[in-house]
Amino acid sequence: MTTKERITEEALTLFAEKGYKGTSVKNIADAVGIKDASLYNHFKSKQEIFESIVELISKHISDLSQTLGVPQNEKTDTPATGFFINLDLDGLKKITRESFVFYLTDPYISRFWRVAHMEQYTNPQIYTMFRKIFMEDAISYQEQLFQEMMEQEVFYPGDARATAISFYSPIYLLLSMYSNQPEHMEEAFEILDRQVEEFYRIYRKND
């Protein structure tokens, strides 16, 4: 791991423990084991460190489909619809569980989640970034997918954005509920499975 990567790693840990405002550049430098002046050789400010963390988080999430083995459409970032057309209920449960675990346990995403929840009422900029990554981008991604599913007559016709929100909202709620309770993962899975079953029943057309 390079010094720049270590700075990012230690900064994210400190932000998750002490908050963005409560962490100084000196705190980060001390955690890395370098002097403040040396840190400035890699980043101009604490804000720039945070922005590099946001870029890293965004990349982790954009790589999620590859992590789950979901093929991509060539011209968009939306998963290939053909993959989902042939996905039965058990397959949908499996991929939803894997996505849930990814968001809940990925070491970067889980720490960033804590930072954003600590700072959302005192740092509008951090909340805006959090909202974009975990709400707006996620819903837009699914909206594109569900719109195509409707056009292919796999889903009943309707409002693709509302459908995306219906699918994602329970997942977001469960992530919020269980982000600090990994020991209750099986309980979360049980609730998640029921939500997927209900979504599948309401929106997917019968064969």
Which secondary structure elements does this structure contain, and how are they paired or packed?
Elements: H1 3-18, H2 25-32, H3 36-39, H4 46-62, H5 64-68, H6 81-85, H7 89-105, H8 107-119, H9 124-151, H10 160-178, H11 185-203
Euclidean distance between termini CA atoms: 51 Å
Helix/strand/pairing class, anyone? mainly alpha
Shape: elongated
Query: Could you tell me the radius of gyration in angstroms?
Result: 19 Å
Largest sheet report: none
**Average of per-residue pLDDT values:** 87
Number of helical segments with 4 or more residues: 11
Q: Report low-confidence residues grouped into runs of 5 or more.
A: none
Query: Helix and strand string, N-terminal first?
Result: HHHHHHHHHHH
Count of extended strands: 0
Strand composition percent: under 5%
Residue share in helices?
over 70%
Describe the structure.
This protein has 207 residues and is mainly α. It contains eleven helices and no strands.
Précis, in short:
Helix content is 73%, strand content 0%.
Features:
mainly alpha; 0% strand; single chain
